[in-house]
């Protein structure tokens, strides 16, 4: 059986216990994962501290940018290994993992190398009352040892989205991937070793949250900052741990995102776009649209067309290029999603498409599959309209006026993403800017430029990453003021 070990101070080490890595498409074990104990997490943090105090902490921008390019090149050289590990961990279709997850894993390193090389320093010339002047300029320095905790839905993409800028800024990291998706993270550790990243700069520990590696990272005073992507209530627990030693946090959390479709939209593009926004990665993308609001004149036609498109999604072997819909990440997560379907029925929903478990044959009969599902008819107060399901489901409801659509979209304690579909330029700007979210897309969804701010409002997160926002979070900034 394949072994996924911890990577501490430049070496792969066994854990204190082992747990199973399950392929969600088949329900079968694909690897044994070595859970790191408290002493191993401490050793990883101590190794990180030594690395930051050593040559890595004093390395130049040019040296670090070159290292980030080497990491990106090595990920690309091992593209197929990453692809297989991603598919085994998540069951996601090869068409998706090969176009999104693995290329973005490499791109995250390249983009942050470029941003680092071109990032300006803040500088102000200050006029003083006596006629003299002062020159202020801010310099970025490493924060120290950064704890990186990531989820299972886009495992490599989201881990590297944080590791790359943290390394770019000269930090050491102690990273913990989700217990459900340890594969690509372990390959990333192999990449770090292969490209000669100094020992202790990148450490990887496997395990769970409470009482395990996740909690050991967040409660250790040797961690200087915590960056986390995952559920809002986990963010809340981590924030309490971070408060103890007043450590900065950056959180990318859950969502209950709205799509707003106006009657004047490009109808086909909107149906295709909402279909992607609701069902990509089996609805397991934090930015997925679970609430779709459609202007009344096109509502019936839209629901019908969306149901037709959903019917064309193909489940099955993730390695078959024709497969477009994968399983859910785990048996536990499928139970949660199916419980929400039951709740929706109790809350009065009409199931326009899906709502059940498909019958797959052969090795996939024990996978964690759920049908892509469209529901209608729920009141806005229904729990299924308020809570994040994180599965292949959207609820579609009609609206009449622009003001009503904005109010409906913003009526949530989350605030991650929204999409607006219209041909009218004024409506597009007005409505997109009125969305209380970190990302508002117009006639598109999940279209990313990594230089732009990314994050969430309300329950969806704390802070912004992306571009200079990432460099600022992962740096300690000193302002130098000179009287001249
Ligand atoms: P999760 O919160 O259950 O777990 C995420 C990570 O945190 C895992 O590595 C887990 O082991 C760890 N963890 C759990 N409890 C912990 C604790 N008490 N202390 C320290 N670590 C702990 O999230 P998940 O189920 O893996 O991921 C799905 C969630 O992530 C969804 O809510 C989704 O919306 C969100 N998400 C958000 C974004 C974003 O950019 N905003 C992106 C992807 C996913």
Features of this protein?
Aldehyde Dehydrogenase, Chain A, domain 1; Aldehyde Dehydrogenase, Chain A, domain 2; 2 domains; seven-stranded mixed beta sheet; six-stranded mixed beta sheet; 23 strands; 39% helix; binds nicotinamide-adenine-dinucleotide
What report would you give on this structure?
The protein is of the alpha/beta class and 484 residues long. The chain folds into two domains: 2-253 and 460-479, Aldehyde Dehydrogenase, Chain A, domain 1 (3-Layer(aba) Sandwich), CATH 3.40.605.10; 257-442, Aldehyde Dehydrogenase, Chain A, domain 2, CATH 3.40.309.10. The chain contains 15 helices and 23 strands. The chain has helices at residues 38-53, 61-77, 79-90, 94-118, 155-168, 183-194, 213-219, 232-243, 267-279, 296-311, 331-346, 383-386, 402-410, 425-434, 467-473; strands spanning 2-4, 6-8, 11-13, 17-23, 28-35, 123-127, 133-142, 145-149, 172-176, 202-204, 225-229, 249-252, 257-261, 289-295, 350-353, 373-376, 393-399, 417-421, 439-442, 454-455, 461-462, 464-465, 475-483. The strands form six sheets. Strands 15-16-17-14-13-18-19 form a seven-stranded mixed beta sheet, sandwiched between helices. A six-stranded mixed beta sheet has the order 10-9-8-11-12-21, with helices on both faces. Strands 1-5-4 form a three-stranded mixed beta sheet, with helices on one face. α12 links the parallel β16 (373-376) and β17 (393-399). α4 packs parallel to α5 (155-168). The chain is globular. The model has no long low-confidence stretch (mean pLDDT 98). It binds nicotinamide-adenine-dinucleotide. InterPro entries: Ald_DH/histidinol_DH, Ald_DH_C, Ald_DH_CS_CYS, Ald_DH_CS_GLU, Ald_DH_N, Aldehyde_DH_dom, OHmuconic_semiald_DH. The active site is at 252. GO terms for molecular function: aminomuconate-semialdehyde dehydrogenase activity. It comes from Sphaerotilus montanus.
């Amino acid at each position: 059986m394949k072994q996924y070990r911890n990577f501490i101070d430049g070496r792969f080490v066994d854990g204190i216990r082992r747990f199973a890595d399950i392929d969600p498409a088949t329900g079968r074990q694909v690897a044994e994962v070595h859970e790191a104990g408290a002493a191993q997490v401490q050793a990883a943090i101590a190794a990180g501290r030594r690395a930051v105090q050593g040559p890595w902490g004093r390395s130049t921008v040019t040296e670090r940018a070159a290292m980030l390019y080497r990491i990106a090149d090595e990920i690309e050289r091992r593209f197929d290994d990453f692809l297989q590990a991603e598919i085994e961990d998540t069951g996601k279709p090869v068409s998706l993992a090969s176009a999104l997850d693995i290329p973005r894993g490499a791109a995250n390193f390249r983009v942050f190398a470029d941003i680092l090389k071109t990032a300006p320093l803040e500088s102000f010339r200050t006029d003083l009352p006596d006629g003299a002047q002062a020159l202020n300029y801010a310099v970025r320095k490493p924060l120290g040892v950064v704890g990186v905790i990531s989820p299972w839905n886009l495992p490599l993409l989201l881990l590297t989205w944080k590791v790359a800028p943290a390394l770019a800024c000269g930090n050491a990291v102690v990273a913990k991937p989700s217990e459900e998706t340890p594969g690509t993270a372990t390959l990333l550790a192999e990449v770090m070793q292969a490209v000669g990243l100094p020992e202790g700069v990148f450490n990887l520990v496997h395990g769970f949250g409470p009482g395990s590696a996740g909690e050991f990272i967040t409660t250790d005073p040797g961690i200087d900052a915590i960056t986390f992507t995952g559920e809002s209530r986990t963010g809340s627990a981590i924030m309490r741990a971070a408060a103890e030693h007043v450590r900065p946090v950056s959180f990318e959390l859950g969502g209950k995102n709205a799509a707003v479709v106006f009657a004047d939209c490009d109808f086909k593009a909107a149906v295709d776009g909402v279909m992607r926004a609701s069902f990509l990665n089996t609805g397991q993308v934090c930015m997925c649209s679970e609430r779709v609001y459609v202007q009344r004149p096109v509502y019936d036609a839209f629901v019908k067309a969306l149901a037709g498109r959903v019917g064309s999604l193909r489940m099955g072997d993730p390695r078959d290029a024709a497969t477009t819909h994968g399983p859910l990440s785990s048996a536990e997560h499928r139970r949660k999603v199916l419980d929400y379907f039951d709740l929706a029925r109790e809350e009065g929903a009409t199931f326009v498409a899906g709502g059940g478990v498909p019958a797959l044959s052969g090795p996939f009969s024990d996978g964690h599959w759920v049908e892509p599902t469209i529901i209608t008819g729920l009141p806005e107060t229904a729990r299924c309209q308020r809570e994040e399901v994180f599965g292949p489901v959207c609820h579609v409801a009609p609206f009449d006026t622009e003001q009503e659509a904005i109010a409906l979209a913003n009526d949530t304690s989350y605030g991650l993403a929204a999409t607006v579909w219209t041909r009218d330029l004024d409506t597009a700007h007005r409505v997109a800017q009125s969305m209380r979210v970190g990302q508002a897309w117009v006639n598109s969804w999940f279209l990313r430029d990594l230089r732009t701010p990314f994050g969430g409002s309300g329950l969806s997160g704390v802070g912004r990453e992306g571009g200079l926002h990432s460099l600022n979070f992962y740096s300690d900034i000193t302002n130098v003021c000179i009287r001249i």
